[in-house]
Amino acid sequence: MSSAVREDQDADLFREAMASFPSGVTVVTTTDDDGKWWGFTASSFCSVSMAPPLVLTCVNKSAQCWPVFTTARRWVIHVLHAGQVPLAVRFATRGVDKFAGAGFAADANGLPVLAEASVALDCVVHARPDGGDHTILIGRVERTRVWPQAPSIYYRRAFHEFD
Hints:
The structure is a single chain. By secondary structure, the protein is mostly beta strands. It has helices at residues 11-19, 66-69, 85-91; strands at residues 23-24, 26-31, 37-42, 45-50, 53-60, 74-79, 104-106, 112-114, 119-127, 130-131, 134-146, 153-155, 158-160. Strand 2 (26-31) and strand 3 form a beta hairpin. The model has no long low-confidence stretch (mean pLDDT 93).
């Protein structure tokens, strides 16, 4: 095993370092004022507070859905399981119909919700601070659903499963 340390203040090395931190895989969904569904894949997700229950995720300012999420009052964070990896890839792809045949249905607020995931968190906006090239979405969790499937893991630009 090599003990060589790579050190630099370089964007590529920073990107590699961040990819070396395993994370869950989420799809975040909302609706605009006209009722159109929007969503994106995010690996940046964590809990912020238990009281009140707060979570955060981040949306890239270059994403097509960014303007919608900067004004949305509600969104749903879905933690995906291994069988939903193709959905994560679809929601990370520009120019595709992200919701077609994917198993989403409108909830009481009109938001797109997966019938099944590892976890689904219904959020209402708490704060949206600037995060450089991203906007940080901090949501107060109003409803939590947990299914038995283990979540998918994203590590070094690949999807992995729990054994």
